[in-house]
Design a protein that fits this description.
Radius of gyration: 37 Å
Distance between the termini: 36 Å
Shape: elongated
Length: 149
């Protein structure tokens, strides 16, 4: 959102109204006052809460979510054979594209050599001029195809 957009200003306004309605500022001040008066209880509550969250996190991580039908751990994994075959197809396509790109570059170099040899001829016949124009057009098409890729 932009800084000055109407929706951003509306969101900020509604957030401030919500915080004032919930009296969050007063609750924070009350909590800070209580924590100042009872520092040992505050430390105990904080450590207890953090320990509870640690135990709950460990329990949710290691407890099974569904009953295991067999003792084989590999059954819980998804069959990866389709993914691997698709990855192989992608690799083959990528390799094919690279080979086609290299072949296109090689054809462009060949056409450039032909073009250079035709340009080097001092006295050109009409047939040489036609071949020169055709070679130039081929080289132009190859160059455009390489630029597109």
């Amino acid at each position: 959102m932009k800084k000055n957009s109407k929706s951003c200003r509306t969101l900020i306004y509604l957030s401030i109204r919500l915080l004032r309605w919930m009296k969050v500022k007063e609750w924070i001040a009350f909590g800070n006052q209580w924590a100042t008066l009872h520092p040992q209880r505050m430390v105990t509550y904080t450590i207890g809460t953090l320990f509870f969250l640690l135990v709950a996190g460990i329990a949710t991580t290691f407890l099974p979510t569904e009953p295991a039908t067999t003792g084989n751990v590999m059954n819980s994994f998804e069959d990866i054979e389709p993914m691997m075959s698709q990855l192989q197809v992608l690799r083959v396509r990528h390799r094919t594209n690279i080979d086609q790109y290299k072949n296109l570059i090689e054809r462009g170099k060949q056409e450039q050599r032909v073009l250079d040899s035709l340009i080097a001829v001092k006295h050109k016949s009409h047939e040489d001029s036609v071949r020169l124009a055709i070679a130039y057009r081929r080289l132009e098409i190859i160059t455009n195809n390489i630029k597109e890729e």
